[in-house]
Design goal:
The complex is a heterotetramer. By secondary structure, chain A is α/β, with parallel strands linked by helices. Helix content of chain A is 34%, strand content 24%. Chain A starts with 6 loop residues before the first strand and ends with a helix. Chain C is mostly helical. Chain C has a single domain, classed as ABC transporter involved in vitamin B12 uptake, BtuC (Orthogonal Bundle), CATH 1.10.3470. In chain C, the strands form 2 sheets. Chain C has a two-stranded antiparallel sheet with strand order 1-4. In chain C, strands 2-3 form a two-stranded antiparallel sheet. In chain C, a hairpin with a 2-residue loop joins strand 2 and strand 3. Helices cover 45% and strands 17% of the residues of chain D. Chain D is α/β, with parallel strands linked by helices. Classes of the chains: A alpha/beta, B mainly alpha, C mainly alpha, D alpha/beta. Chains A and C meet through helix 10 and helix 11 of A and helix 8 and helix 9 of C.
Chain lengths: 498, 308, 306, 327
């Protein structure tokens, strides 16, 4: 008889205007267990954990702690019951220091009412940081910390609530493999201390590496709850997507690449890239692999002209680029940036307007904008890219991650780009949409375009690229042809020290 | 090292202006003149302190000048009607607080953009003040306020004392209380504050209420200084306060506030105006040099930011 | 937008009922003439705000352009030189604002607020407190004359409105401005040359302020250093009442025209009803809040409904 | 980036820039007596004439004039600051036009406390000790000019009044003068009384609106010349006729009288007051007798008697003190 769950949610339903987010969902968190919660975007995962931590209130459903019914009306109730959540967007205040961030809203009262007992605040923070093996000064302002350190502060925040149930929403999305390893060590340690961990992830490898139990959500309903040992990756994907998803992202590889479309020679940039050489031919999908911080984004931003270049040459279809995004776009280059929401789209504007942002000069060379032509171009792309949206007038804000990415790609198709740069195109996108995006890359390349893609998902890189460059601390350290393009080779090159 | 990188361009400007005026403007560096600068800048500082909190929470308050005019007139009229200074001051604080809370509710609860909401309350406050007084200044406020305003403690005039006390209070509020943490949080990551179970809306309204309250204190100084209340005496002071805060290094994004910078900003404007007056510089040049000061101070910051 | 039209209609109705002199065609034309001046000075500013910027130097720029235009006409006697001087001054100031915001990366609030003070300084120095007055009636007709008994400034407003409408809807440039306003970094990474577009916007704002200065000179038949000062807040109020959001990416010139008309209706109504003008800031403040409340309610409704 | 480096970079460019600005304008001589002249704002030509006159009078009696003009027009706190800053310079005497008659009393008391003699010019302050008040009697000038208008309207008809800025004392006195004149002409009917804030543009707009409301307006009283000229613009635009009067007797108004557009303007001439105010201060410094009040005879310039008053100010000379002050 497995022990009673620390906390349990039963028959939870939640509806937002126009959408039934959760239908009769149950979830149990058992002590000393990592409970993986998987499902596509929009399956209701984040809604479920927001209900668990009291940010949302369910329409129906009940909460049980050790089998006894309880009420969770607010984040305070959840915290009282020992539930702590780490969301994907960090909940850190940049200009407060680490201790102030950890105890935000739960400061130790000082002598004078309303004040904070700073001594105790910092000593407690120090204690928790030592627990996590972080030697950073608790007085450092968090805007000075790297992404990985901020991740650790989020965990410290949860531990400071001596949480019995720790919920983590895609914690490894933005950190390096070394840091992921460190995170898993801490998770195993917490599990050992009897803490129940609910772990949301898109990365199949993590599910099997650390998961003790898996719950699959699809379209707001429980689909399955099983042990990793009882299932395989393909079965999980099928459960999540509810239909057969051929994860074969790429059918035909490029045998005879066309002429060199992009040629980068001895590129040095202010952002730290040193002596990068790179070529990209028409019809090819070339990968850029490397650990977080290896400089892949810095490299492509310099190629695109978004960051300043110190020295070196960039040739696009034979023409030397002086180095501004406007010039790069005019010459047919398009960048699908790392963070869609801040650099790829204007969230408040409609799908229609977003899709036209880059292609205005291309569609209307003489400067006169006509609605009819614009509408035709956008409607065509919505159909061909299968963008799921009630109308072209809908603000981009209301689209799912996958559809937003398609709008960005549509933007570049409108601009007639021939060289596409994808920076982490499938981050935060569910399995179904991932496959579509890679299929899109294939059709682009088939029409003679060239694609340079950055991805931290090594299995995807291996499955999609004709060849790949590997970067390590801001320099290209090697190139892997199709034949020896394997995850092991990539990791070995990316991690080689010295 | 964090502290040093923090010093805004205006600090250097202040030092340079001080040295130059000390040399060229006879009598500038004398104690009475420095006290003058202190007195002249104290009212503006009372407005700039809460304005720092507002700008840190990505807000703006255009109504402070007009509300100061109104609270000044309320204070003067209450005194003329024979009330004691305490009662009159309480009335002024009440009116200021009411407008502060109104601004807060409009911006936080009704979601109006701060520029628009406070432009609206600017008109309302100015309108009430004008209608109350028919545009005339309110005189005959009796001896109580002037006596208080003229008091000195260890040679330090009343207005500088009030300004110093208020700075200490705001410094304590921002850096030593929970409320201060929440001001950083509202500007830096409001979502996180809500998720931490803190009533972020309440504290956000409090930020605007504080600004309204401070116009009551500023009214004490302004009416004391003029020995009368005037409906539109403080028009335009809110722009000077905003400029002083921004020049002082506080940024609208990410809750990057620095209270000492605001003091530097206020003093820079005060030193420049006083120095040019003492040197009897041609008035049109005085006007242009204020604009120049603002732009040069920001220029230094933007160049340094690009270097780091 | 339709809420604002209803707002205008309501005010016209209320004032028409309470004062018989109000609803006469000549008074309404008179209101249009006065509104067109606010519209002209606010039209360039509208586009800057659509591009998520701000231009506080509009009033001071208008005043300086008027003074230079006046001096030019007096010196050369040719009206065209007046236009040239006014526009040139406006354009140069706009260009400087644009360069400060883009190349020097100064926050627009402070850059244009600093420019405001510097322009006043130059204006006081240039005019030394004097007035330039007395201009040929052909020039004065620009401000106070009629054509087919419609005030000439109204034609300018209509032309400005049409030009603005064409620019924002039917030119790629106009769409780029909305893109920059909504998300400048995304626009830059979409190949839109953000800096040069912003410089164009600020220059345009300066040019319109310069043009408004010349028309103001024609209307007043004299130029002094301070004529621009009281015009900044009404221009900004007109843009905000018109529904153009300060966060950028939305709104337009049609809204600004309605905002200008609402503001003028208020003063016109109060003069006719003999209400003491001390009430004027109060009424304007209430209208600004009312227009903003309509906006936030409709936007919130749209969000929930979508 | 050590602190030294950081200081080095901005310091160089910065010092040159600011030093250049400040140095270009300084260089005051110390020895001669100095008179601090406080005027209300930068833009109203009326105060420019006062400044020009004061300069002329000062040159005659070789004293120096230092001008204190608020950067934002009619700003009370700023004039208060300028008073304190002026005291540090220890001027020999002060000629003072208060921005507000009540709010500036503490300022005048600061001069008195510092032992600096003050001549109150144009706007009578409601407190503080003065060597003398020099100015025209707003009340009487307004009354006479209004009477002149009503006589020209042979005592009947409709008029509208365009008021000055609410807070200023000379506006209150001028309105009182208009009201007194109205009492003597019972069947002159006031259709409306609205403010133009002493600004030409506002007066123009207000008049445009009032012309719509009232079809029959025979006379328009404006509290100063700038507004009167705005009224004239409105009348021209609406091609309406009305008898317009203004106050102050500025050169532009005199030209309008010459051109027949303006019926008359009450003489409260800035130039004369600038001269007499400065001379009063100089006489006091030379301990020559100065009467507590120097109020000018009231003349109403109309199409007949404007000669002499229309010469440009630069060429005009200050009259002899004795020609004005008959003790």
């Amino acid at each position: 008889m497995t022990p009673a769950p620390l906390i349990e949610m039963r028959h939870i339903s939640k509806a937002f205007p126009g959408v039934q987010a959760l239908k009769d969902v149950s979830l149990a968190a058992f002590g000393s267990e990592v409970h993986m919660l998987v499902g596509q975007n929009g399956a209701g995962k984040s809604t479920l954990i927001k209900i668990l931590c009291g940010a949302y209130r369910p329409n129906q459903g009940e909460f049980l702690v050790h089998g006894k019914p309880v009420h969770i009306e607010s984040t305070r109730d959840a915290r009282r019951l020992g539930v702590a959540v780490i969301f994907q967007e960090f909940s850190l205040v940049p200009y407060l220091d680490i201790a102030q961030n950890i105890f935000l809203g739960r400061e130790f009262p000082g002598r004078i009412p309303g004040t904070v007992d700073r001594g105790r605040l910092h000593s407690e923070a120090r204690r928790i940081l030592d627990l996590l093996g972080m030697d950073v000064d608790t007085r450092t302002k968090t805007h000075r910390l790297g992404v990985a350190q901020q991740q650790m502060i989020e965990i410290a925040k949860a531990l400071s609530q001596d949480a019995k149930v720790l919920v983590m929403d895609e914690p490894t999305a933005a950190i390096s493999d070394r840091e992921i390893e460190r995170l898993f060590e801490i998770i195993r340690k917490l599990r050992g201390e009897g803490i129940a961990i609910i772990y949301i992830s898109h990365r199949m490898r993590e599910v099997f590496e650390i998961g003790d139990r898996i719950t699959v959500l699809r379209d707001g309903a429980n689909v399955a709850s099983l042990r990793p040992s009882e299932t395989t990756m393909d079965e999980l994907v099928r459960l999540m997507v509810g239909r057969e998803v051929d994860t074969t992202y790429r059918t035909r590889f490029c045998e005879r690449p066309g002429e060199a479309v992009l040629d980068v020679k001895a590129l040095d940039t202010k952002s730290g890239i040193r002596g990068a050489n790179l070529t990209l031919c028409a019809g090819e999908i070339v990968g850029l692999a490397g650990l977080v911080g290896a400089g892949r984004t810095e490299l492509v931003r310099a190629i695109f002209g978004a960051d300043t270049r110190i020295s070196g040459e960039i040739f696009l279809k034979g023409r030397a680029l002086r180095g501004s995004p406007a010039e790069a776009v005019r010459q047919g280059m398009g960048l699908v940036p790392e963070n869609r929401k801040t650099e790829g789209l204007a969230l408040l504007r409609s799908v229609h307007d977003n899709m036209l942002t880059a292609g205005l000069r291309q569609l209307f060379p003489h400067g006169w904008y006509t609605f009819a032509k614009a509408k035709r171009a956008v409607e065509g792309l919505i159909k061909s890219l299968r963008v799921v949206t009630p109308s072209a007038r809908r603000p981009a804000r209301f689209l799912s991650g996958g559809n937003q990415q398609k709008v960005v790609i549509g933007k570049w198709l409108n601009a007639g780009s021939k060289v596409f740069i994808f920076d982490e195109p499938t981050r935060g996108i569910d399995i179904g949409a991932k496959a579509e995006i890679y299929k899109l890359m294939e059709t682009l390349v088939a029409d003679g375009a060239a694609v340079l893609v950055i991805s931290s998902e090594l299995p995807e890189l291996v499955a999609v690229c004709d060849r790949a460059y590997v970067l390590r601390n801001k320099a290209i350290v090697g190139e892997l042809r199709r034949t020896d393009l394997t995850e092991e080779n990539i990791l070995r090159m990316a991690m080689q020290h010295g | 090292m964090g502290r040093l990188a923090r010093i805004p361009g205006v600090a250097f400007l202040l030092v340079v202006l001080g040295i130059l005026f000390g040399i060229f403007a006879g009598g500038f560096a004398s104690l009475p003149n420095l006290l003058n600068i202190g007195i002249q800048s104290s009212t503006l500082l009372l407005l700039a302190l809460p304005m720092t909190f507002i700008i840190m929470t990505e807000g703006l308050d255009l109504s402070m000048g007009a509300v100061l005019g109104l609270t000044g007139v309320v204070l003067a009229s209450a005194l003329v009607a024979g009330n004691t200074l305490i009662v009159a001051f309480a009335a002024a604080l009440g009116v200021g607080l009411a407008f502060g809370i109104a601004n807060g509710l409009l911006v936080v609860k009704l979601g109006l953009p701060p520029f628009v909401a406070t432009l609206g309350t600017l008109g309302i406050a100015q309108g009430i003040a004008l209608v109350m007084t028919g545009g005339e200044s309110v005189a005959g406020i009796g001896p109580a306020l002037p006596k208080l305003y003229a008091t000195k403690w260890v040679g330090i005039p009343f207005s500088i004392l009030v300004a110093a006390l208020m700075y200490a209070a705001f410094h304590f509020l921002l850096y030593h209380t929970r409320f201060g943490n929440y001001v950083f949080a509202i500007g830096g990551n409001r979502e996180a504050l809500v998720l931490a179970g803190v009533p972020a809306g309440f504290f956000h309204v409090l930020v605007y209420a504080l600004a309204g309250l401070m116009t009551g204190f500023a009214a004490l100084l302004l009416t004391g200084r003029m020995n009368s209340g005037h409906p539109i005496a403080a028009m335009g002071m809110e722009f000077d306060a905003i400029a002083a805060v921004i020049v002082g290094g506080t940024e609208r994004q990410r809750g990057n506030g620095w209270l000492p910078g605001t003091v530097l900003g206020v003093l820079a404007v005060g030193v420049l105006r006083n120095g040019l007056n003492v040197m009897a510089i041609q008035s049109s040049l005085q006007v242009a040099s204020i604009g120049l000061l603002l732009i040069v101070a920001l220029l230094i910051d933007s160049i340094r930011k690009r270097q780091l | 937008m339709k809420y604002r039209l209803i707002g205008v209609a309501l005010i016209v109705l209320a004032l028409g009922l309470s004062s018989d002199a109000f609803a006469t065609p000549s008074n309404l034309l008179n209101v249009l003439r006065q509104a067109s001046l606010i519209f002209l000075s606010a039209s360039g500013l509208t586009l800057v705000i659509v591009g998520a910027g701000l231009d506080l130097s509009v009033g001071a720029n208008l005043g300086l352009s008027a003074c230079f235009a006046a001096a030019a006409i007096k010196a050369t006697g040719a009206l065209s030189s007046g236009f040239a001087a006014g526009l040139a001054c406006g354009i140069i100031v706009g260009l400087l604002n644009g360069l400060m915001v883009t190349k020097l990366r100064l926050p627009p609030f402070i850059a244009t607020y600093g420019m405001l003070w510097m322009l006043y300084g130059v204006n006081y120095w240039y005019m030394k407190g004097d007035t330039i007055y007395g201009f040929p009636s052909s020039f004065r007709a620009l401000g106070s004359g009629d054509l087919l008994d419609i005030p000439i400034p109204v034609y300018l407003m209509v032309i400005g409105l049409l030009a603005g409408g064409v620019f924002t809807r039917y030119t790629t440039l106009g769409h780029e401005v909305y893109a920059i306003g909504a998300n400048a970094e995304a626009a830059r990474l979409s190949g839109i040359p953000v800096s040069s577009r912003l410089i164009l916007l600020y220059t345009l704002s300066g040019a319109m302020a310069g043009l408004a200065g010349v028309i103001y000179l024609a209307r007043l038949n004299s130029a002094e250093a301070g004529i621009g000062t009281p015009l900044l807040l009404p221009a900004i109020a007109a843009v905000l009442i018109g529904g153009t959001s300060l966060f950028g990416g939305s709104g337009g010139l049609a809204g600004t025209m309605i905002g200008a008309i609402i503001l003028t209706l208020v003063l016109n109504g109060m003069n006719l009803l003999g209400i003491n003008s001390n009430w004027q800031p109060l009424v304007t403040g209430v209208i600004i809040l009312f227009a903003a409340l309509i906006d936030s309610v409709t936007r919130r409704h749209a969000e929930l409904g979508a | 980036m050590t602190f030294g480096e950081r200081l080095k970079f901005p310091f160089k460019g910065l010092v040159l820039l600011t030093a250049g600005v400040v140095l270009a304008a300084c260089g005051e001589t110390k020895n001669r007596e100095t008179i601090a002249l406080f005027t209300k704002n930068q833009t109203n030509p009326y105060f420019q004439t006062v400044r020009v006159a004061a300069q002329a009078a000062a040159k005659e009696s070789n004293v120096d004039i230092i001008n204190y003009i608020p950067t934002s027009n009619d700003s009370i706190p700023e004039q208060m600051n300028q008073i304190e800053d002026a005291i540090t310079k220890r001027p020999s005497a002060v000629v003072f036009i208060p921005v507000d008659s009540k709010a500036m009393i503490p300022g005048v008391e600061k001069f008195n406390a510092a032992g600096i003699p003050v001549v109150n010019l144009i706007d009578r302050a409601d407190g503080g000790q003065f060597v003398s008040f020099v100015g025209c009697d707003d009340y009487a000038v307004a009354m006479n000019t209004a009477r002149y208008l009503f006589e020209k309207m042979n005592g009947k008809g409709n008029v509208i009044i365009i008021e000055g800025q609410g807070g200023s004392s000379n506006n209150q006195k001028r309105m009182a003068g208009f009201r007194k004149a109205l009492e003597d002409f019972p069947n002159v009917k006031v259709l409306a009384s609205q403010t133009g804030n002493f600004q030409r543009a506002m007066a123009l707009q207000v008049t445009e609106n009032l012309l719509q409301a009232h079809s029959q307006i025979d006379g328009i009283l404006a509290a100063n010349d700038a507004m009167a000229l705005g009224v004239i613009q409105a009348l021209d635009a609406a091609n309406r006729k009305a008898l317009v009067i203004g106050l102050n007797g500025t050169k532009e108004a005199i030209d309008a009288v010459k051109a027949g557009k303006l019926l008359a303007t009450g003489d409260c001439d800035g130039f004369l007051q600038g001269c007499m105010g400065t001379m009063a201060a100089v006489r006091h410094l030379r301990n020559l007798p100065v009467p507590p009040e120097v109020v000018f005879p009231i003349t109403v310039f109309d199409s007949t008697n404007y000669q002499g008053a229309d010469a440009p100010y630069e060429q005009r000379m200050c009259p002899k003190w004795e020609s004005i002050v008959k003790d």
